[in-house]
Amino acid sequence: xxxxxxxxxxxxxxxxxxxxxxxxxxxxxxxxxxxxxxxxxxxxxxxxxxxxxxxxxxxxxxxxxxxxxxxxxxxxxxxxxxxxxxxxxxxxxxxxxxxxxxxxxxxxxxxxxxxxxxxxxxxxxxxxxxxxxxxxxxxxxxxxxxxxxxxxxxxxxxxxxxxxxxxxxxxxxxxxxxxxxxxxxxxxxxxxxxxxxxxxxxxxxxxxxxxxxxxxxxxxxxxxxxxxxxxxxxxxxxxxxx
Amino acid sequence: xxxxxxxxxxxxxxxxxxxxxxxxxxxxxxxxxxxxxxxxxxxxxxxxxxxxxxxxxxxxxxxxxxxxxxxxxxxxxxxxxxxxxxxxxxxxxxxxxxxxxxxxxxxxxxxxxxxxxxxxxxxxxxxxxxxxxxxxxxxxxxxxxxxxxxxxxxxxxxxxxxxxxxxxxxxxxxxxxxxxxxxxxxxxxxxxxxxxxxxxxxxxxxxxxxxxxxxxxxxxxxxxxxxxxxxxxxxxxxxxxxxxxxxxxxxxxxxxxxxx
Lengths: 242, 260
Fold this sequence. Notes:
Largest sheet of chain B: 8 strands, antiparallel
Structural class of chain A: alpha+beta
Strand content of chain A: 25-35%
Helix content of chain B: 25-40%
Largest sheet of chain A: 5 strands, antiparallel
Number of strands of chain A: 12
Strand order of the largest sheet of chain A: 10-1-2-11-12
Order of helices and strands of chain B: HEEEEEEEHHEEEEHHHEE
Number of strands of chain B: 13
Oligomer: heterodimer
Radius of gyration of chain B: 22 Å
Number of helices of chain A: 5
Order of helices and strands of chain A: HEEEEEEHHEEEEHHEE
């Protein structure tokens, strides 16, 4: 949507300091994403709402992408959607070129390092996105990598990104990594164990329905992509539309 | 007489030496920072046999209704319509780009022709690359046509390169005033299968009327384009808003019926 610069009528006629209006090359298109790694699977989920300001542009604009490689890798770049789409598209091309050049599929770890260089390559005009990658590592275990807009990254068990990251992440700390949970008998802090796929999906659905209640830029539909050694499965789940 | 305007009003060459035209380019290069002549909302809705678009014929200069017969729905290739809001000169540049694109494509007599998804992809890259140069084309654009599988296609792209698809899309003021009305009949993907051409047209006519009531930079004269999944494009021009009631204006100060 285009907008005219706002000129305060009171100062429009006064010969005061000139009003400077600069084109803002960024916008925020809402939405949120979440990834959890299991012992032999990984999930990457995102809502499908696309917004600008208070407007819902689309109720179904999926943003979790499967990269064109085998075994597949899931990626989502959430934030400013034009940058996110561009990043994912270029990453898809780079992943294909990798397979042509090296005659093998890219690993998740190599893909993560590639994303770092792509993000840092625009360090001084960044892609305004929170990027999460999910796949299976060389041992077949679930792998999740998350990035900040300029390419800092680490491998994690779980990560939430985007508009409602601050609502979901503490829930994940408690339920996936068992933070602030203590054994009733010994009083010792609990140690995290791998979740089952069923429990993971329940957790993802709960996280998103709760985020939808409290965040206006989250809702409409939930898309969950599950990656196992069999390939990628997609599940959809309705979210509140208000 | 010297017919070159750039030579008018310059210091005399015989007195002050030859004028140096390089000073025209002194200072930094500047880009479009704001639109000047603008078109308001473009509306579009998918229906069971295609996509329908509407845009009025006004080109405004700020709050001045400057040109009242500006067409903003552009037929591109054989089976695509592009609706443009925002800066009109940038729209004309986009029109030029699209004409070049179609001509280039026609050089290959391979029986292939560019359809809506291809034109949308091209436009969205042009828009994103211009915003990345901080020299945007100040527009919000709707692309309508059919997908490769024959189903209706409708996509949005704006000056930031932001893109999305939905069964109903509107730019500008239409996003606030028309979308709630259009989503009553089509809010989710697949809803368009239950909408007839007549229903779609009635909904767009109603929305153009609501926009003329409340959008101060709009006109009651507009064009309606239909792109069917058979690949037929029709653009009906000079449509007028019907059955309007302005009785409420009687009670509002500023409509000219009262004396202060």
